[in-house]
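Good morning,

Attaching, inline, the backbone tokens for the sequence recovery test we're adding to the shared suite. The designed sequence is right after.
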């Protein structure tokens, strides 16, 4: 009983500790990724702002402003302008390619030029690290002067993918650990081998280990802590001889003192409390120990 109780207590502590360590590690990793991604995001916004500046110069505008870059999605940014402008698609393609090649984390991306009034796509193209996969058309036609916004969508990098996989895997791991932990602490409504809600069927009655009680023929008999631990050892192994040494070790080992006559005294007390049921008794097996004998 003592060993099994320590095992389950240690198991719950282990599961709780594992959940706590995993949660802290996940939070720390999330913050470290957030810090790294913050720098990369800021650098990317500076590059996009530079692209917007050059588009204004190519339009003949050296005085109006590029509005603050907007991050409208995880990997999508928007360049907006204070005044109307015109652009040549070939110049736009070359400018974005020249500056975005400086971004170490940029591989493939999509550029869409939108009309401010209706958000319709006035021009768009796809640039890939593998040039044969580029999709670029109508590069020789100058676009009319109007209010435009330039949306740039970047293909997620391997780091982003790894981050998402790790986060999802970590959350799944925590969910599994939490489920196991909760299951380990949840009382069972019905257990095999005659056990019901921490009660063990013995002859005509029940032994309630949690509340230290014997219930025989409707009579409730209170047990002491030592009597209950001793009773549980017998109840878990009915009709099986249990060595004296095992009983002494599991009941008194933690107290540091093992007294052989103490065992006999508690056995005697249990026998008296079991007299209400003639079909159950504790018998001596000479030279070995004791046995909880349950008759028909």
């Amino acid at each position: 009983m003592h060993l099994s109780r320590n095992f389950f207590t240690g198991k719950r502590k282990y599961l709780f500790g594992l959940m706590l360590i995993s949660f802290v590690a996940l939070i720390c990793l999330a913050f470290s990724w957030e810090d790294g991604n913050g720098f990369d995001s800021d650098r990317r916004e500076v590059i996009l702002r530079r692209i917007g500046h050059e588009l204004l110069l190519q339009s003949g505008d050296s005085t109006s402003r590029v509005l603050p870059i907007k991050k409208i999605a995880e990997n999508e940014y928007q360049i907006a302008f204070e005044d109307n402008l015109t652009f040549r698609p070939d110049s736009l393609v070359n400018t974005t390619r020249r500056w975005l090649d400086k971004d170490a984390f940029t591989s493939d991306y999509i550029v869409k030029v939108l009309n401010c009034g209706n958000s319709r796509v006035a021009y768009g193209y796809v640039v890939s690290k593998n040039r044969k996969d580029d999709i670029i058309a109508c590069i020789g036609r100058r676009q009319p002067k109007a209010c435009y916004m330039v949306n740039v969508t970047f293909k997620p990098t391997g780091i982003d993918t790894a981050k998402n996989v790790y986060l999802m895997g970590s959350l799944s791991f925590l969910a599994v650990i939490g489920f196991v932990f909760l299951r380990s602490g949840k009382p069972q409504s019905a257990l095999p081998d005659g056990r019901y809600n921490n009660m063990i069927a013995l002859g005509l009655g029940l032994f309630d280990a949690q509340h230290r009680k014997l219930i025989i023929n409707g009579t409730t008999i209170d047990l002491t802590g030592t009597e209950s631990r001793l009773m549980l050892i017998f109840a878990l192994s009915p009709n099986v001889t249990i060595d004296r040494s095992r009983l002494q070790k599991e009941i008194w080992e933690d107290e540091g003192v093992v007294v052989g006559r103490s065992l006999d005294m508690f056995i005697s007390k249990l026998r008296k409390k079991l007299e209400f049921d003639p079909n159950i008794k504790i018998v001596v097996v000479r030279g070995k120990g004791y046995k909880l004998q349950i008759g028909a």
